[in-house]
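Tokens for Lysophosphatidylglycerol acyltransferase 1. Go.
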Amino acid sequence: MAQLLEGARNLGWVLLNSFLRFIFVFINNCVAIPSYCLYCILLQPLRVMDSRTFWLIEGIMFKWMLAMVSQWGWVAGYTVMEWGDDVRPLSEEEAMVIVNHQATGDVCTLMMCLQDKGTVVRKMMWLMDHVFKYTNFGLVSLIHGDFFIRQGKAYRDKQLIYLKDHLDRYYHSRDRKWIVLFPEGGFLRKRRETSQAFAKKNSLPHLTHVTLPRLGATQVILKTLGPQQENGCLGTEASTVHRSQSGSKPKGLQWVVDVTIAYSKARPMDIQTWIFGYRPPTVTHVHYRVYPIKEVPVETKPLTDWLYQRFVEKEDLLAHFYETGAFPPPKGQKEAVSRAMTLDPVQLCVIQFLAFASGYLWYSVLQYFYCRLF
């Protein structure tokens, strides 16, 4: 009887905590998203006169929006441990980020772990499924200039054309630095069976923790944003420096950042968990590996082989992690070293205060005009 009462008490606490978190997140969205959109509308004259300053201000607000999402998980005890290469020195250089995709929580995890990477968050562009366009955050992503890609064979060719046009129009004009994509084209649980059947038919590696990536968007990004091609690869250091010094064109992509996300006990986290916080505190592990862009081929067959090899490496990384609880050490080292990623609570409090103050300001303005008109 005592155990039943204790269990009921724990369940009641979980439900109350989830309800309170939902109310907080709901108010957060009702305050922050309209404020972001209204400020962007009011600043349109600045965009015409000085677009660089406009996108600087918009980027700061965008980073604050993502910091709020990060806070929802961080307050619930969902933290991040980082492994592998240190990507912070690359924060001011252009990079393509490829990530394995298991659940909607992958995006939240990236929002959190990139918060302390300099200007990356405010200068990044996301490639995401078109369904996200219709979520509460979709309008923010549209204003920021993210690209929503529609999956399926019927749309594939047109979507790649749209992607190239989008990159040409918005990437450099808005001073973007990092572009993030999920080459698998969908969640692991949805694509694994199809991917394994394709691998078996074409004598490709059998993958369990990731799926075989798709080439289209990756190739378009490399060809559109990469430096001048030489011998089938994306430029050399000499050609890149020359182009940069000339001032005629941006340097182009300099790096590929390969990100592997691993969840405790192989249980991916979704956005619902991130919002309601009903899972006990847990640590998500993120592994980085950096490749110079000159090592990346751009022709279809070599690039396919290169991309497949990256996901075979991800498979090995995840298999080792789920077996041992840690990622394997880099070559030449005896053990891997992890780094705890933490958010600044003072900064989060300031952002929340500014969001609610801004919401109150807009409420007062709208109330004033409403009373004057009616």
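The first strand starts at residue 78 and ends at 84.
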